[in-house]
Write a structure and sequence with these properties.
Helix content: 10-25%
CATH architecture: Sandwich
Distance between the termini: 74 Å
Order of helices and strands: HEEEEEEE
Number of strands: 7
CATH topology: Immunoglobulin-like
Shape: elongated
Length: 126
């Protein structure tokens, strides 16, 4: 009886972790979280492990109010490109949410900065 209970518990735990692992996950963003750039991005790119549908996205600079981003793509894709508004030097937070194929809502936040100084060019190879 104890063996049967242990087997049932093991199957339940394995099934739950497998189901969780099957959900979409953000694998890469441009700009990257915590990045600093000399020029503002022209777009935000979110790459996922499986197709998702963008629900909403907001941008916030320093202590300003959050602003909703418009012209959002609504396709079911692995890579989402969101046009960026005109950005000036400062610290930003991009908040986003997507729907997965199994109707789960994923939320994320990417923090990045735009420097007032241009990024120095890489030294030429000799």
């Amino acid at each position: 009886m104890k063996k049967l209970l242990l087997v049932c518990l093991w199957i339940g735990l394995f099934s739950a972790s497998s189901a969780y692992a099957a959900h979409a996950k953000l694998v890469k963003s441009t700009p990257e979280d915590g990045s600093v750039a000399g020029t503002p991005p022209s777009a935000f790119v979110l790459e996922f492990t499986e197709p998702v549908t963008l629900h909403e996205a907001f941008i916030k600079k320093d202590n300003d109010k959050e602003t909703a981003l418009h012209k959002l793509p609504h396709s079911d894709v692995k890579t989402i490109t969101i046009p960026a508004p005109s950005l000036t030097a400062g610290n930003y937070v991009l908040d986003w949410s997507v729907f997965t194929h199994d109707s789960i809502v994923l939320h994320g936040r990417i923090r990045f900065s735009v420097s007032s100084e241009s990024v120095a060019a890489a030294p030429a190879a000799q």
